[in-house]
Design a protein that fits this description.
Blueprint (H helix, E strand, L loop, with lengths): L12 H20 L3 E2 L3 E3 L2 E3 L10 E2 L2 H7 E3 L17 E7 L3 E14 L3 E19 L2 E7 L6 E6 L1
Parallel strand pairs: 8-10
Antiparallel strand pairs: 1-7, 2-9, 3-5, 4-6, 6-9, 7-8
């Protein structure tokens, strides 16, 4: 049978309480400065409308605003439907790159929250070969409103 005995550490009990309280306070302050990873869903089968001439906002909050900028590209077969979004429960974060004649794929990176703003990273893979056609590379993600912040910053890697 094991028994445990309390060892005398040489630190008075009142001082030990102060040390523990200070350590917990330091951990709390350190946690405040950390960023939190936010879950999201990558949207598929959307395109930038041809008549859009103004810059696309990084964050879209309503179906009307979304429909102004983006159209649905429905295909036959599995995964042919656009990813559904419910703007009462979600909002969209957008990445729209300039028109190019190079094949370009945009891949989602991380979405983090620093307590004041959301920060989304992406990576664009561009081929060197020029095409005879052009494209406007688009990446959309849908995020639950519980993670919404006023500001959204988007940056490529």
């Amino acid at each position: 049978m094991l028994t445990f005995r309390r060892r005398a550490s040489g630190i008075p009990k009142d001082d030990m309480k102060k040390i523990i309280i200070l350590a917990l306070a330091a951990l709390s302050f350190a946690a405040c400065g950390q960023t939190k990873v936010i879950p999201y869903e990558v949207a598929h089968n959307y395109f930038l409308r041809n008549n859009v001439t103004e810059p696309v906002p990084a964050k879209i909050n309503s179906q009307e605003e979304f429909a102004h900028f983006f159209g649905m590209a429905t295909f036959m077969g599995k995964n042919g439907q656009p990813t559904p979004i419910d703007f009462e429960k979600q909002f969209a974060i957008t990445v729209v790159l300039p028109e190019t004649n190079h094949s370009t794929e945009v891949h989602a990176g991380s979405l983090t929250d620093d307590g004041k703003k959301l920060f989304f990273t992406y990576q664009a893979d561009v081929t060197a070969k020029e095409n005879t056609w052009t494209q406007v590379p688009v990446l959309l993600i849908f995020v639950d409103r519980q993670y919404e912040r006023e500001k959204v910053e988007v940056a490529g890697k």
